[in-house]
Amino acid sequence: MRRAILVLACALAACGGGAFEPQYPERQEPHMSGVMRELAQTPPRTADPVIVAVTTSPPGLLCWDLRAGRERWRVETDARSTPIVAGEHVVTTEADAVVVRRLADGGRVLALDEEDLHLVGADGEAGTLVVALARGEGETPLGYVVGVRDGGVAWSHELSLSVGSPAVAGALVLVPWGHQRLSILDATTGVERLRLRMEHGVLGHAMHDGGRVMVGQHRLYPVTAELFEDERAQRRAGIEPRGRPLPGQPPLLPDAYEPRMNAESARNRVRLAWSLADGEPASFADDALYFVFYRLVFGLASGEDEVRWVHDREHDVVGADAVPGGIVVLTDDGRISLLGARDGRPRLEASLGVPVRAADVRADGLAVPDASTTAPAAPLREQLHQIASLDDVRIGAGRAFAIRFLARDPSADVTAQLVALCADRTDTSQARTAACEQVAQRAQGEQHVLAALRGGASYLEQRPAPPIAALARAAGTMRLRQALPYLVTHLEDPATPVDELPGLFEGLAALGDPRALPPIERFLRLYHADATDARMIDALAAAARAILALAPARLDSVRGLADDPLAPAPVRERLAHALVPPTPEPAPAAATPPPRQPAPEPPPEPAADLPEAITTEMTDAVMAPVQARLRRCLERAEGDPLPSARIALMIDEQGAIQTVSVTPPELQPCVEPLVRPRTFPRTRRGREVVVHTVRR
């Protein structure tokens, strides 16, 4: 098979195809005008709404017709990757090859059986299919594109750079490659008709969505002549949802330059889903963005940092696709649900009847009924609290996300709910941490804070200590002086966990009640001479800061403890540091009228060709050559690989990287040598801080 493909590729190149050659001219006329007219006149795509799923028992593939509500076909095979529905075909990695099957009946059409080929993407219309593959396992695998017509390979091209996810639009094939290039080929012959380049964005995906032809990765751009002729248009054009922190931080579109995800990959279970509305300019249908996090489905506003609804599907979601009016989700127990965009209530439900590992859900053209199959949705606050209270350590980050929005309700009842979540010491996930952070910021619900503080640890009753740090900070925020006796009791109680003490002292300082001074001073004198535990040393430093906040005149008293030769050196150092007052901001100079002078010449405008600031797309393009090696930094000699790393970079006016800060810090030695030599484009803003996230 490989020899036949290579002979065909050589024949096409000899005939003047020249596809993907480095010297190919860009934006060449009259080809550009002709290709753009063809794209504008491409009829809207129509397709049957289907699901193709990887089944577990028995192992194989199953096709479900969403409109008819029945199984279309099932075949037994060892499917290794998430399938791709591509027009009249299904493409997947199976045990022995990348396999193309007919969507109509599951019959095998052909196999690309070379060992070093890995499926990247595929698309199709009518009888045309294009498959993008990666050759090799290296840092930047070579791209390989195959055109299939009438059940056989019609053409193929080997690329010198990586290839993204292609699209078929009528008689044309769009292939993103090299992160910034777009080649538009003749679908029949594979001859390149037009070469385009994106200077201010990443090109990873091409797509034919309804009547639109779009490209992009972090943003979606309509393919127009203006987009590729005017760099300023690239900065203005395109759509993307509002940026916000999300657990796992899934991208708008999967990384198109990575091989198709394994059927067991977490990327199947942590993803975004969206659809485009009809009409111009392009926008997200229903102003909706759907966030899938394992068993949770959040309905978000695409333009605002807002949660509209959230559902617990009880089983992990392994496939999802949005349509105007809602989202279709498939869970690993084979259950299909169509959830409405407005309230998340189910509109349609069905079951495949078998468990599944992964799926490609293509719901385009599926009508969403107005009526729901369930009772009215609960208020959003109840939905968020239900999710926050789930007992599943895998979804701790998703529960923390729900807690962040639950806390937007300022009512006392929500304070009570947050206190209860914070008090659950059996919960070791991010959810408890998030609840405690929110408790510390509450302004209402004093009675619930006092009630929690009245309780104490009891070994006999098997009752743990309340979350003293969060409650003390909340009392300080509320200026709740009635809490002082309870806080002092917990301070003097040996059962109070030592890691709660810094927060307790911060809360006492914020209360501003001088009655707290004597017990704080007693604590500091009692423990300063024999503290060796790092947590206790942190507590002593917090106690010193609290004393100085409540009574600055006690400076000499704290200094005496900092100079005590009997205290361990780390304690003396931390106490001395607490004595250093924060640097005050300089007072503004007295305003004096300046002497009259001639009006100065207006400053020169910034160079028109410099972008305003470094964008996410620019950062991704700079990091693309080392991205694969950065991912390898997430692997550890012992234990599971880390899911992600956050790289904060200080960029100077010339685009050079001045500082590199990596979270978690253990990855700094691996990451910094890779990113430090990279150079960013100059911008009008000059010095900037950018953040780049590396994910598995």
From TrEMBL:
InterPro entries: PQQ_rpt_dom, Quinoprotein_ADH-like_sf, WD40/YVTN_repeat-like_dom_sf
Keywords, in A-Z order: Signal
Keyword Signal recorded: yes
SUPFAM superfamilies found in the cross-reference section: Quinoprotein alcohol dehydrogenase-like (SSF50998)
Gene3D superfamilies associated with the record: YVTN repeat-like/Quinoprotein amine dehydrogenase
All residue ranges annotated as the Pyrrolo-quinoline quinone repeat domain in the record: 48-116, 146-215
Region (Disordered) location: 580-609
Signal peptide as annotated in the record: 1-19
Skewed-composition ranges (Pro residues): 581-606
Pfam families in alphabetical order: PQQ_2
Protein name: Pyrrolo-quinoline quinone repeat domain-containing protein
Source organism of this protein record: Sandaracinus amylolyticus
